[in-house]
Specification:
The structure is a homodimer. The first copy, chain A, is an alpha/beta fold. Helices cover 38% and strands 16% of the residues of chain A. Chain A folds into 2 domains: 44-74 and 338-441, Aspartate Aminotransferase, domain 1 (Alpha-Beta Complex); 79-335, Type I PLP-dependent aspartate aminotransferase-like (Major domain) (Aspartate Aminotransferase, domain 2). Chains A, B: One of its GO terms (molecular function) is transaminase activity.
Chain lengths: 442, 442
């Protein structure tokens, strides 16, 4: 059976009656103007009017601790990003077909985060566009079309990328040139077995593509395997995977939309934990702290091959305002020590969840790196039975206690802990103490 | 033979030696950091550091009259857009899964521009994403996959949209479910014949898709047929086309990335000139005056069908800052009378080109609506032989005289006249007089 990952934490529009009149009115306006494809979070949706640091504020001025939003990764309404955007927008906002220093300064600063590896940068506006472009590059360079993804991967919403995103569930068919492989599931298997399942799956997928006359173009992985259930281990796995896919003529694409920009704490990019050099690295969400900027870096020979045949012009991609936002984010991560903070507070938070697990048997496992943690909830630790209902209840109860969080994983039974990088130990304590209270009620 | 539309007005990197040392240095930095897929405009690329109104400024403070950039459509660095972005970015920038008024206010204001027709809005970050999503909606709703485009159409850069964009030339193969039809070419044919070729082409494309077992999903057209060579006539054509594609089970998608947001002068949207109601309308470039916002409106039953099966979440799409930028643009178009200005100055400019055509036989035809005009250059008016070299020379000479313009059309022999909407008659005179001088030299 294909697990249906349709948003576990979505508002059910049939439950409109229980809400405040002004919330009902807003939701009715949404339904009329935006229609069916938009979803709201929570049994009781939240209305926000202001954001600052690690907090969002409702119209009454109540502060919500944000443990979810990795887009405003360096803190909501970060003054340096706001200033950079405002200043550049007032000066010049144009495109990449004129000479302008902002894209060069930013591209060079970004490329410098790759530890001396030679890459070139291309800019888009969204992570979906970045992955879509990565597929175009990989297919052009390899001559293949086959794409291999993990079983519950999410890589974005363009046609080409959505058909490589099994996380959408059974209503969205995978592409005919797409194969899935198991994520390195270290909860149900030991590390060696998890790695073997992943690599054997990859070999089988390559063979199956070839058996169907499809040449592999790429293996693409979220380097923390987040939508598959957050699997940061075993380290080194991706180096072995890279070898296999390259032997088959394909490329390794590291999707850093989740793990990148210092979130993993120990490294700036998630793939660096695995000591591998991907052929293409894609990035998005936190890149402009909410300003729509995304992109990729790729080995020069890959971009050469593509660029000689086809021009690429993304109207808004790499514009001076987006580059100013991106540069402000890079600077803030460095100047404010946010990578170190992600490592320290991430470790503190992880230890805190592990301490909770000592008294609350509902917590089956705590996994993650830096400030991306998954807390897996089970009704039975031996049989590892997913506690989906309880997880949903916790998420909604946390919302009532003004803490924002969501669920993750194929069974919707994991707390998705993904706060802003300046998250403090006091913020962590607030989350841990509130969760402790809730778990006592279960 | 497939005409190769690779940028007629692109800088040739082998000509680096003739440029100023600081320009050479910037281009070398670009080549190293960004690689081969990025192109610069002009034999002598331009370096800009500031924009204001209808002018861009180089580092020496020289003003260039901008007759090209339709993104900063209401004027470069428009103070109201800058203020809206700065204010909202400092307050709150989050996503569509929380309640927020900005997306509702903006969606309602946008929907009000459709003259009472019932649509719903979905937001993306780029026009490419908007067209990509339109294809997903159309394919979901119709159950078909076939897409019909004009022979030199350009609809964007995602995989799915690029394979429907013959403007990229022969190096980018069209998708196997894509068919092309002639644009309504009123230069080589009279209006009745141009319309017949377009509609007969459409019928043939539908039949050919069906003959191959492919059900048509949509006909998508730029409502001014700009990359095909700017064909605003015959009005009414699209209503007839809509009938044909709907009879075959497909939808009409109006791509308003070029024609929309008041550019055509007489109407807010290009399709409104044709008195047709498209099933889906996509929009992009000018929507946020340079801020990355794009989107579509579609008939509610189309969005319903899609949204019930699949969720759609575009991380940055419809965020409060983007919506604030979009709202400022809508307000400025209204408050500053920019649609009326596009109509008046557009007509003035068109008449000016027609006057130039009386003395300069190089001008074969002047076409367009509002402030999107195409001036077709030919070496022989009888035989209509494209004057590509002369057109390229004019574009580069205009750049030396600090007027920014580009080429358009399958043969690269048209001046692409697409200034900002506040373009004045004095601006028009400057362009016309300079062009007159240049034409005298030919």
């Amino acid at each position: 059976m294909i697990k249906d990952q349709r948003m576990a934490n979505a508002f059910d529009p049939s439950k409109l009656a229980g809400l405040k009149p002004n919330e009902q009115a807003m939701i009715e306006r949404r339904q009329k103007a935006l229609g069916q494809a938009y979803r709201l979070f929570y049994e009781h949706p939240v209305h926000f009017v202001r954001g600052e640091g690690v907090h969002l504020y409702d119209p009454e001025g109540n502060a919500y601790l944000d443990v979810y939003n990795n887009v405003a990764s360096i803190g909501h309404s970060h003054p340096k990003v706001v200033e950079a955007i405002a200043k550049q927008a007032a000066t010049l906002n144009t495109h990449t077909r004129y000479l302008n220093e902002s894209i060069l300064d930013y591209a060079e600063a970004l490329l410098a985060t790759f530890g001396g590896e030679t890459y070139q940068a291309m800019f888009t506006c969204t992570g979906s566009e970045a992955n879509d472009l990565a597929f175009r590059l990989a297919r052009s360079y390899t001559g293949g079309t086959g794409i291999i993804v993990t079983e519950y991967a999410y890589h974005g919403v363009t046609s080409s990328v959505a058909e490589c995103s099994p996380a959408f569930g059974p209503n969205l068919p995978l592409g005919i040139h797409v194969r899935t492989i198991p994520a390195p599931d270290t909860y149900h298997f030991d590390e060696a077995a998890a790695e073997r399942r992943f690599l054997d799956g990859l070999s089988a997928a390559i063979l199956d593509l070839q058996r169907h006359g499809i040449r592999p173009a790429a293996l693409i992985v979220d380097t923390l395997f987040t939508s598959d259930g957050v699997y940061p281990e075993p380290v080194g796995l991706l180096a072995k995977a890279a070898k296999l896919i390259r032997e088959a003529g394909g490329l390794l694409i590291a999707d850093e939309v989740q793990a990148g920009f210092a979130r993993s704490g120990s490294h700036f990019w998630g793939f660096q934990r695995h000591q591998v050099v991907p052929d293409i690295v894609t990035m998005g969400k936190p890149m402009g702290n909410g300003h729509p900027i995304a992109g990729l870096v790729a080995k020069p020979e890959i971009i050469d091959h593509f660029g000689k045949n086809v021009r690429y012009f993304n109207t808004f991609g790499g514009n001076p305002v987006s580059c100013a936002a991106g540069m402000a984010v890079l600077n803030a991560i460095k100047e404010e020590g946010l990578q170190e903070n992600a490592a320290q507070v991430g470790a503190y938070l992880k230890a805190g969840f592990e301490t909770l697990a000592e008294t609350h048997t509902l917590i089956g496992d705590v996994r993650g790196a830096g400030l991306f943690l998954g807390v897996e909830m089970v009704t039975d630790r031996e049989k590892k039975i997913p506690a989906k209902e309880q997880t949903t209840w916790i998420v909604n109860q946390l919302r009532e206690r003004r803490i924002l969080i969501s669920t993750i994983g194929p069974d919707g039974n994991m707390l998705k802990v993904r706060p802003q990088l300046p998250f403090s130990k006091a913020n962590a304590d607030q989350l841990l103490n509130t969760l402790d209270d809730l778990l006592k009620q279960l």
